[in-house]
Amino acid sequence: MSDLGQRIQQIETGSADKSVAYTQLAQDLVSKKAIQDLKNLVDHITNDDVQVSISRSVLSQISQGLSKLNNDDALIVGQHSIDRMASRQNTFEDEIHAARRDFEKAAKMLERINLDSISRQVDTDEKAQLQVQTAEYWFEDDDAVNAEKFINKAAHIIHIVKDQAVRIRYKVCHARIMDSKRKFLIASFSYYELSNQEGVDPSDLLVLLGMATTCAILSPAGPQKARILSVLHKDPRSPKLEQFDILDKMFMGKIIKKPDVKSFEDQLQDHQKTVSQEGYSVLEKALIEHNIEVISKIYKNISFEELGRFLEISPEQAEFIIAQMASENRLKAILDQKSHIIEFESDNQAINTYNNQVLNICQNLNTLISGILKAHPQLQKYDTHIIK
């Protein structure tokens, strides 16, 4: 029996989670560029006796791995997969459409499947796999709205799914959707979780960490951004990232100018370069808010005009952004529109206020105890303090 045959037999007889085991096998064969074994694996998983949810998961993994092969080998494995799926067209029709890059048809094909009408019992893993697969097809078709609809359906049951491969695909799809919808803070936390996820291809972990860092840099200023920046900065892998210089400056609270981010900006995806109605790109707005936070820790107050000059925007734009950040509780500031002055309340001021309040309580308590002991001298033997 060949090495591939032995591994398949081990999976069928000894693996608790066959989907994860087959997916790992597919990853290994792709990394080894074992073309014939990949074709044999496709033959095996497209047999009628292999559960459809497992077949779909492994075929998806092989499809993703084709980019790591040279063009000729990728064409051989891809065409063989299509031919095998075509022989079971009713089962794999969506996979055939996806292989032909017609993701809209693939998504609509899956949407037509009514799990309630199937005669056999459909387990939670299969339901989640179907919903995640549909979301992935819609996302590949650049339809983030429909993709989010199906990933939200999967969210209701993903916590009880046993198939690790499906759980990972859910997390990846969810993070990409949040990224594409410019919900960068959520995307950053999701990508970072995946960068530490067991079962993810080791070669992808640093890539996911980089994506988490990019989204963190682009996210709106505030306590949650500070939290993820701290987590990323402390990660021992981060210094290897191209984005580390900007991450370090943001975490350390340094002023960042446009020329500092030129190379970073060139690497952004199209949706990360979107310009808002205010006229700022995502990166420009993130830098302005970051620099405002830095200034708030240096100055107790500053005029709208001076702030605008420092940020290279108009005083009116500076006032609007500060007001927005303050109203969303992302910055402690008071705007005096009559005097055109911004008053910042630093964290140190908040701590001092708290300490003064504690001190006042202690002083009042001491005064109260002194009064009681003077009124009742017999209690002084219980007091360890000297009463003046």
Automatic annotation (TrEMBL):
Could you state one GO cellular component term attached to this entry? cytosol
Q: What Pfam families does the entry give?
A: PCI (PF01399), PSMD12-CSN4_N (PF22241)
SMART domains, alphabetically? Answer: PINT (SM00088)
Every PCI domain range: 186-349
The protein's location, in the record's own words, is: Cytoplasm; Nucleus
Q: Which key words are in the record?
A: Cytoplasm, Nucleus, Proteasome, Signalosome
Asked if the keyword Cytoplasm belongs to this entry, the reply reads: yes
- Keyword Transcription regulation belongs to the record: no
Family that this chain belongs to: Belongs to the CSN4 family.
Q: What is this protein called?
A: COP9 signalosome complex subunit 4
According to its UniProt entry, this protein's organism is Stylonychia lemnae (Ciliate)
Q: What is the lineage of its organism?
A: Eukaryota, Sar, Alveolata, Ciliophora, Intramacronucleata
Gene that this sequence comes from = Contig2920.g3122
